[in-house]
Structures are given as structure tokens and as C-alpha cells.
Prior knowledge:
This protein has 318 residues and is an alpha/beta fold. The protein contains 13 helices and eleven strands. β1, α1 (14-25) and β2 form a beta-alpha-beta unit.
Amino acid sequence: MTAVPVVMDVDTGIDDAFALMFAVRHPGIDLRAVTCVAGNAPVDQVVANTCYVLDAAGAGEVPVGRGATAPLLAPTPDTGHVHGLDGLGGFSRPSDRRTCPLPALDLLRHELLAAVGNGEPVTVVPTGPLTNIALLLRAHPEVAAGIERIVFMGGSASVGNVTAVAEFNVFHDPEAAAIMLAAARDLDIPVTMYGLDVFEQVRVTDSDAATLSGRLDPGCQLAGALIVARARGEESASIGDAGTLCAIVDPDGLGTERCAVRVELGHGFARAQTIVDRRRGPRGDDHHSHGTVPTQVDVALTVDARGYAGLWLGALTG
């Protein structure tokens, strides 16, 4: 298997930890760098969590960069009730791993321009709020030539999880999500949206957690503990953000539909909704009345849930 070069942008809570573990351990992923953004926890805690998870997963020298500390405009929401005060359900531990001296935007620019130079475009995988990616694409549009595709966890074509219509990563910084989509449109960067329509479907069980916890492997033991923490007393838990990486390794397991997508930036009940236009047939250019041109996005609507769960478990256990 030829490994796909990947750069991840994370707000490491439990879901991001699952994604990082998969990225480190699956031979189909070549993890080039990880950048951190405030989201599930403050950015310094996100950096600490990321370093610890990389340690537990047995990662080599993967550069980790510190990024945005807050959303572009809106106040930072309180998220401690979701993933715990440390963002990892209380399982975060200190790490001796050194972070990259470059801030996140400079690290991303360095990696993507290197990809331009060697002719090997990188897949960018944001699994947190899109603040870093929005800033990068507007400040350094030259990096677009080094991006194969953006596969982001966020949004929904149906219901939300923070509000009736808004998903957390987009809700945390809707302006950044709108800017990222607009920049991708302007720079002709393909985008896949792995949102709530598939996010909760890929699940592992308490039996899987027990199997992982029983192995003499720090990464598996951490994964087992985090499954239990995420399940919150239920018999199974979603691998969440890790589905984005599974979709890179096994794209046939994801059913997508190409749709026009825009983000609602008003301040009413629909704020941060990803408006996914699934209408068929001819229609008017209604973007003129709304002031924004939508971005064509491959929106994930179905997923091989059992296949992706097995793929994730197989990567962790080797």
C-alpha cells in the first residue's frame, strides 16, 4: 500500500485522539505534521494532549505546532462538559515530546510548500474548528498547489449536536468554516465533508474496549480507556473523527454526494448551520440574494460502519 501523505489539524479531545492513533499506526497514512487549535480544550492543553497521544501511539518525530487560541470573531464556548476539563476525559498525561518552534500556520505553510516542491500533494485533515485552515488559505494561498484535498470533520446535512442545526466544530468558529469553504472554492481545492450524518455511525463496543485495554500496548490501553469514557455507560462509542482517516484509506466505504454548501453566519437560531443544497434539477442562481457563492463539496451521507470500525481496530492492534 502506498501511504497517503497527511497533515492533521486537531483540537485533541477523545475523537481526535482516535484519529491520531489511526494516522500513526495505519500503513496507508504518512503523517507529516500535526497542528493544534483551540476547541475541545484551550490550545495549550490541546498541544499537551496531542503530544501525549502521539507518545502512546508510538509516533516518531512528527512536528506539532501550536495554532489559534480562539475563534476569529465569536467568544470561545465552554466545552469542559463534553470531553472533561483536560479534553481527554481525565486521561491526559505529561509528555517529553518537543513541539515544533514554528507556529501552526508557518508549519502548515512549510509542509505544503515542500509538497509543491516534491510534487507530492498532501491531504489536509482538520478534525477541530477550522480557524487555522481559514487563516492559512487566506494568508498563504500559494499552498493550495500542495493540497490534494481537504477532508474535514464538521457540519451536517441534517441535524446538529450543539444546536438543532449546528455541529460543534463549525459552531465553535462559523466564520472560519465559511472562509475555509470560500477559499477552497476560490483556490480550486477539493473538499470532503465528514459530518454528523456519518460521524456517530462507526462504533466500537465495550468488548472492543476490554480487548484493547488488555493488551500490553500503551496506545491500545489508552484507546480502550477513551472508548469507555466516550461511551458514558452505553455499550458502544463512536470513533468520531477517526472516520476521516478511514475515508482516506478506504474511500469506497464512504458514500458522498456533491452538493453546494454554505455556512449560516447570522445570529439567530440557525447560526453555524451548514446549508447543504441537495435539490435536483435546474434552479435559479439564488446565491445573488444571499451575498455568498456556495462551495461544491463532497458531502458524506452514508458509511460502511462495520468496515470502518474493523479498519480502525485493526490499525490499533497491528
